[in-house]
Amino acid sequence: MEQRNILVLGAGGQLGTELVRELRAVHGPGRVIASDIREKPEMSEGGPFEQLDILNQKGLGDLFNRQKISQVYLLAALLSASGELRPGEAWDLNMRGLLQVLELARQHHCQVFWPSSIAVFGHSAPRISCPNEAVQEPSTVYGISKSAGELWCRYYFERYGVDVRSVRYPGLISYEAVPGGGTTDYAVEIFEAAVSGRHYPCYLRADTRLPMMYMPDAIRAALEIMAAPAARLSVRTSYNVAAVSFTPRLIAASIQRHIPELSWESVPDYRQKIAESWPGSIDDSLARHDWNWKPRYGIKEITDDMIAHVTPEKSQQMMEKI
Ligand SMILES: NC(=O)c1ccc[n+]([C@@H]2O[C@H](COP(=O)([O-])OP(=O)(O)OC[C@H]3O[C@@H](n4cnc5c(N)ncnc54)[C@H](O)[C@@H]3O)[C@@H](O)[C@H]2O)c1
């Protein structure tokens, strides 16, 4: 049988860096094409890499024509905090990028993974254990684009049969790549400050509770929903997936078990308002029921693993890349 390839768009970011590595480990390096607008030497070393702006419609179409693609992971997006600074750009990239990929997936019969976010919820959704089908009144351009994107995914599934699958990620914590401008980036930055002995001015208030997830859980969620039997999926907009929920004060205390000298303070900026519009925790019982989703990392496990991997040298390299 003809072998078809897997394409990851926006592969050079926080999620893509680790997702590409895992996909290449599972399917073989030659079958996973990493693509990003930015040149990423470490990506081309491990397998095929295509430098491409997903808004370049012709370039994207040519890529689908040249390569035989069976699955697309669309990760290129402008995140919540960056999106508030550049709203027009965020809408254009997040919406037009998605529509172009859905259309190509329809023409080439590809399965699609497209991550949504807890940012689809706004003030009118429940703050605690926010359910999958809670009302969506997002207050950021990022949240609006994700909310509309979810409906486009369901539209392409219902109207054209495109097998598009999606999860609403909470804030993602990882140590391989610099986070890309989200409101939850503090939960990575505070580790970097702790291991390198720097004082950390946290841009959120100490008691701001947000849902979070460690990267290995996030990668597993993507692979598991893509492998789930289609008949088990009752949701074609997006599934809530939860892992932990904590505040800056709680994660700082968890780090101080390893590094008691961690010095930090709360200096809220515009991101406080974004965080306050989101739920503090989400209910993922539908994902647990439909495709057996279950997180593995709690706050202690995340802290122990981050402390073991974020070294002062790595922290410095990451800061230099920003
Ligand atoms: N990181 C999180 O906490 C989080 C939480 C919820 C949802 N998500 C979603 O997961 C996905 C990946 O997020 P991430 O954290 O890896 O983001 P990121 O910002 O770290 O990475 C995005 C990548 O897309 C690339 N890109 C930007 N514009 C592009 C374009 N025009 N063409 C091609 N590539 C382009 C960037 O160079 C970057 O490498 C996004 O859809 C995001 O909304 C992330």
Task: Describe the protein's architecture and organization.
The protein folds into 2 domains: 5-120 and 134-169 and 218-240, NAD(P)-binding Rossmann-like Domain (Rossmann fold, 3-Layer(aba) Sandwich); 172-212 and 242-321, NAD(P)-binding Rossmann-like Domain (Rossmann fold, 3-Layer(aba) Sandwich), CATH 3.40.50. Helix content is 45%, strand content 15%. It contains 13 helices and 14 strands. A 6-stranded parallel sheet has the order 3-2-1-4-5-7, sandwiched between helices. Helix 5 (87-108) packs parallel to helix 6 and helix 7 runs parallel beside helix 9. The relative contact order is 0.13. The mean pLDDT is 95. The site of nicotinamide-adenine-dinucleotide has 28 residues, from helix 1 and strand 9.
- Class by helix and strand content? alpha/beta
Query: CATH topology of the largest domain, which one?
Result: Rossmann fold
Major sheet size, sense and barrel closure: 6 strands, parallel
List the total number of helices.
13
Q: How confident overall, as mean pLDDT?
A: 95
Number of E-state strands? 14
Low-confidence stretches: none
CATH architecture of the largest domain: 3-Layer(aba) Sandwich
Corresponding CATH superfamily of the largest domain: NAD(P)-binding Rossmann-like Domain
Q: Report strand order across the widest sheet.
A: 3-2-1-4-5-7
The first-to-last residue Cα distance is 44 Å
Shape: globular
Radius of gyration: 19 Å
CATH class of the largest domain: Alpha Beta
Q: What order do the helices and strands follow?
A: EHEHEHEHHEEHEEEHEEHEEHEHHHH
Give the ligands present: nicotinamide-adenine-dinucleotide
Q: What is the domain total for the residues?
A: 2
Q: Helical content, roughly? A: 40-55%
Q: Which percent range describes the beta-strand content? A: 5-15%
